[in-house]
Every structure is written in structure tokens, then in C-alpha cells.
Amino acid sequence: MKNKISILIVIIGLAIGLIGAKFGISIAIGATMVVLLGAAIILDYQKTVILLGLYVFIDFIVRNIAGLAVVSSIWDELMFLGFICIFIYKLIRYRKLGFYKSTPLDFPIVFFVLLGVFLVFINSPNLGIAIDGLRAVVQYMLWYFLAVQLLDSTKGILKVYWVLTITGTLLGLHGIYQYLTGAEMLGNWVDSAENITTRAYSIVGSPNILGAVFVLFIPMSIALLTSDHNKLRKFIAFCMTVIMAGGLFATMSRGAWISAAFGIFIFILYKNKKLILPLILCAGIAVLMLPSLSSRLTYMFTDEYKAKSSQGGRIYRWEEGVNAWSEGNKAIGLGLGRFGGAVATNNDLSPFYMDNYYLKTLAEMGIIGLSAFILLLICVIKWCTTAVIKERNGRKKDLMMGLLAGALGILAQNAVENIFEVPMMVTYFWLCIGLIMALSMDKGRYSIRDKRMI
Questions:
Q1: What does the alpha-carbon distance between residue 9 and residue 128 come to, in Å, rounded to a whole number?
Q2: What secondary structure letter does DSSP report for 400?
Q3: Which of 152, 180, 301, 325 is the most exposed place for a label (fewest CB within 10 A)?
């Protein structure tokens, strides 16, 4: 009966979309998405989390279709409110599943959020900017809670897992296409001394952030390859890994290359230590066989790179960040939203992005804020590692380790980029952490739909 109702709702939604198209594309898309979302809820509320996996595409569509411009800056907040409504629906419809699933990371996240609120009250030269700065830091962490609460089975989690890796694969294909066709670079992304004519950026708009997508998702696709016994799915996972690796290369992002290598190394170290040496040999061969890769890496060790980096590059920005922190209140920083991030640059308070999220946090939140943030990340690593160690199911163990390895790669890349300044990447990071905890909590729970063991 529910399937028939859902099909009817889908048909009605598509009809509304066609009618709405006559009055504006925003009405068409908005009406269709609302009704389709309703159908997904009736079928299985877990499927709505798939929307988070499609974040990058939804964001691109909303920001590039004129009729949707009115919600371009708040669409993710609206989706967050929608997910809260879905959670309330779950509480009412499936009361037997319990009210709330607590995790070891609940308190560390809440503590960091409350600390941010406290710093806004005691250190906000401009309250509006401080609130925007706080929102940019903590808002997307909250997706973690909804992901954990809405995912109740390994089957549902695996669907989100595949959507994430397919998303990375599609971006990888587009990135490779841009590289092969010599897409025009949108900014001054290489030094004049380097012989590089293009860098892939896909719909993300930044090669470094596109590289971060692959840093997070490549270990996940490797985990799909090692954990699945189905030959077709293993082949698909292998192809996805190769495509994302190609996309990663096309970004020409040194930080992403090194961070991805770190994440893959962590996964291989967990899976089979004997593969470490072959991995190193393959990396060495790749450096030798790909001149653009080797020249891009070796350029970092030249005097010219150090000189240019000190004049206006990363080294200069890091020094400016340390100086800004040391000249202000070292304990509580300059104030949220006042240095090295999107809020600061939009309000003409900082001439650049910090290119190091930890230094950016130090400058804005001081020693207290950075210490709390590092403590939060330590808790993330500790409890996710504990979840992997305690898991007895080999397939789930691999999937969880793929998520953790990708997340560790992102934390490494944050040392040379402001990855957490990008809403998409913060959302994906905390979604992956939520998937780890949700997997660890599912101990053979029955599927909501078919009552079979997952």
C-alpha cells in the first residue's frame, strides 16, 4: 500500500513540477523536490540522508539557476530544518526504535559549540560578524547528529556510502575532462616558474577543494573494493578508485596529493602492512613517470618557491596569522569571523584565507578555542578508532576504516588549506564521522522496510 501511495505522490510531484515550470523554474524544482522528499520519507526516511551525499550538486544547481537565487544562501539551512522535521516524523512513526541514540562524540561536539557561543559573548567587537563566524565554524557539525539519528541499518548506511563515492567519481570524470581539454584556470593558481597550463576544479570551483573531495572519498572506494565479495561491485569500486585518482592528479594540488597518500597509507596499514612497500614503490614510479607530478612536488623544495611563498604565499600568510594572534588576546583570540576565513574576507577584515585551518582557529579563538578544537578532533579519532577495533564484522570494519582514513586525510590537509571553511566539505566530513558511529551502533538491527536482518 505504501509503495502505491509513494508512486502516486511521485506522479503528482512531477505533474506539479511541469505546471510550475510555466511560472518559474524555482516553483517547478521546489514543488517537485518537496513531493519527492515526501515519497522518500514514506518509503524509508533513511533514504533522505542521500540528499547530503548529493550536497555538491544541489549547491551547484541552486547557485547557478537564476530562479533559485533567492534561496542560494540559505538552502542548506532550509534542508537542515527539513531533516529535523524528518527526525520528528521518525520519532512519531517509529517510536519503538527509541527517542535518541547517544554517541561518545555528542558531548565533545556540544562542548565545542557552547565554547564558541561563550567566546561570542565575551569577545565580539561586532556581534553580527561574530555570529556569522560562529555559524561558519559550528553549523555544519550539527549534521553529525542528524546522520546518526536517521540512519538505523547497515543497508541504509551503505546506500549513502555508495552515493558519496559515486559523487566523487562523477567529479573525477569532470576533472579529468577539464584537464584533457585544457580548461581555463579561474585564478592565479600556479607560480610563473611552473610549466602548468591547467588545473581541474569541476563544479567545485577550486582545485584544492576538489582535491579534498578525493582525499575523503578515495579511501572509501578502496574500502568498497576490499570489503565486497560481489565481483561486479568490486570492479565498479576499482573503476571509481581509478577515476578519482585521475581526478586527484588533474587538480595539481600538492596538499591534496600528500593528504590522499596519507589517508591511503593509513588504510593500507590497517588492511595489510605487507602492501606498504608496494604502495611506496608505485608512488615512486608515478612520480618518475609523470613529469608534471614530479615537477610540482620538487618545486616545493626550491629557493624560488620559498621566496615567493614568503612574499605572498602560504608562509607569508602563516606568519601573518601568528603575528595577528600574538598581538591580540592570546587566550581568546581576535574574535570569531575576524581573520583568515570567508566571514573575515567578506567583511574586509582579512585580505586572504589563512591556508591553515588550525592557525585560523588560533587567530580567531585563541589558545582556548584551538585547544578545544584539537580536543574535539582527538575525541573523533579516539572513538572512531575504538569503533573500528571493536567491530567484529569484517565488511563493516573495512567500510568504517575507509571513512576514518579519508577523514584523517582531510585533517592533514587542513594544515595547508582552509578545508573546513567550505560548507560542503565540513558537511561531508561530519557525515562520514556520523556514518562510522551509525555503523558501530547497528548490531544486526532489523530493516525498517522488509524486516530482514541487514
A1: 42
A2: H
A3: 301
